[in-house]
Amino acid sequence: MTKLMSKSPVRTVTDPHAPTARRRRNFRLRPATLGRFAFLAVATILTLGPVLWTLSTSLRTPSESFNLPPHFLPLDPDFTSYQDVFRQLDIVRLVFNSALVTGLIAVGQMITAALAGYAFARLSFRGKGALFSIVLATMMVPAQVTIVPVFMLIRGMGLSDTLLALILPAIPTAFGTFLMRQYFLSLPNDFAEAASIDGASPWQVFRYIYAPLATPGMAIVGILAFNFHWNEFFRPLILTISEQNFTLPLGLVTLQGNLGTGSIAVVLAGVILSMIPALVVFIFGQRSLREGLTAGASK
């Protein structure tokens, strides 16, 4: 008894601290851990460096924007460039056009991708495999190849130089269809079998059972569509002519002035302002984005 009592204080003092000390030694001596941290640090610098440089340049005066050697931090922060953006652009109209176009495209892609993905994943019909292969093949065709046929179709429909010319061709999405198909395949079949036994139609099975379960996947499609089309420049440049139908990226180009004589600080101030809506969407949608990316692996 006395031996046990004499050994117990030593065990209670040293044992709890031994694993912690061992973990600390292992953490300090692992080259792989240091290599991962170094890689993440380099990736962070490469990702955030241009954004921070854009913000820094937007706070400089036009004369300081071309100083050599350049200074990463502005010597005297100047916010007049942001005032010039609002003075030179009808920023409210541009933001409204971009929000309307990207919002309707995101909603449209969420609906069409969910319907098409469910059909390819759960329904049986002739030629399903060949049709899905054709859908995937369209992902390999760049937008520059199809812009002329799309322009001719839009002109034939009488939608030239309208916001609908930007919305309608962008609603079908091959990537969203593929993503939602894989998501529906990850869901169990028991729900559909039970609903079919109760007399539910395929539409009712999708509407009341699988569509609510696929909300995280639809959120991914919507967020990715919003971020892509918010920054889209090529299609609006080709399909719109009048300034009243310009989106925000087209409006920012006008800040360059004639033959690029505008202030670079003003242009980059407009770029910073254009990033705010996309950043807000990502902040509020990152939880759905994370759940959607990990839901397929957890089911």
Q: How would you portray this structure in words?
A:
The chain has one domain (82-298): Orthogonal Bundle (MetI-like fold). The protein contains 15 helices and no strands. It has helices spanning 2-14, 17-29, 31-58, 80-88, 91-122, 128-137, 143-156, 164-167, 174-186, 190-197, 202-213, 215-230, 234-239, 248-253, 264-298. The model is unreliable at 1-14 (pLDDT under 50).
Question: What would you give as the CATH superfamily?
Answer: MetI-like
Described by the principal axes of the CA atoms, the overall outline is globular
The percent of residues in helical segments reads over 70%
CATH topology: MetI-like fold
Distance between the termini: 54 Å
Q: How many helices in DSSP terms?
A: 15
Query: How many domain units?
Result: 1
From the 3D coordinates, which CATH architecture would you assign?
A: Orthogonal Bundle
Largest sheet: none
Q: What is the string of helix and strand elements?
A: HHHHHHHHHHHHHHH
- The tally of beta strands, per DSSP, is 0
List its traits.
mainly alpha; MetI-like fold; 299 residues; disordered N terminus; 0% strand
